[in-house]
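agent> Task received from the user: take the single chain below, predict its 3D structure, and emit structure tokens. No templates, no multimer pairing.
agent> Plan: (1) validate residues, (2) run structure prediction, (3) serialize to tokens, (4) report one or two observations.
agent> Step 1 OK, no nonstandard residues flagged.
tool_call: predict_structure(input=
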Amino acid sequence: MFFAIAVVTLALVLLFNVFCSVPLQTAFGFWGAAATELGYALIALAGSACMILAARRKQLDGVDGIEIFSTRPPEPKAILGGLLLLGASYFAAILYTNIVNLLFPEAVSNTVQGLQSIFDGVSLPALLLCLAVIPAICEEMVFRGILQYALGRYGSPRVTILLTGVVFGLFHLDPVRIPIAAMTGIALSYALYRSRSIFVTMLMHFVNNAASAVLSYAAAGTQEEAAAQVAAQMEEFTAMGLPGWLLYAFSGAEITVIILGLLIAGLALLEAHPTEALKKHWVTAVVLCAVVLLLGAGFIVLSAVSL
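)
tool_result: status=success, residues=307
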């Protein structure tokens, strides 16, 4: 019952995205993107109302808006843990993007140019409102609210977290961005599972989008300067008699260490008993560390081969 309602809700969100986002942006320009996000929220609210009505018909207790959307006050420890976990996924996304850029530079360039076109003629406050504040609320209502709640009633926490994160990634449609969004989605879903507060994931979502928007806004039109700066650093490095790829090796190793540190710290803060959780979920811990190490190693190897 709940799963079926969640599937219908996601289907309506996807259809709304496909058929309504372009007309809204054509009619209202940049603000059409915000209107699209608000449409997601209305669909999520309708889905939650259907869940509550269905639960009453089945005489199920405890199904209300607070339970579905996890609108509980967050603990400071959970907020900090969620932000650290977000930092780990953010730096992992940087490694992944660099790897894809080495393999498929044109695809990454097209994605970057498409995102940069959003910033033309838009003030930073408006950009933050439409790309950070509103999506952080509306998309979390759909994915960490309706979807994760429905999946959590039937599946194990591990399956629920992974599936919610992957679906969140697929929702972004762009092949370059799907793995990045999926990594972020998994971090958000885990933070919700441990904190039991959607306000933690809304803050994480806002910080993630705001950081991307601010960095992209500040970097708009400066790609040539950035490339020149990297070239200058490479010349300084090779002038010391060291191979150029070693610069990328140091960079990849540094980011890998940062990811592991943020990941460990974030998980420790989100877990009530970190040591016991590590013993219980050691396989998951090994897989996470292996993925991070593979990302770092892949970037270093590809950098060495491409130079």
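agent> Step 4: summary for the user.
The chain has one domain: 2-222.
agent> Done.
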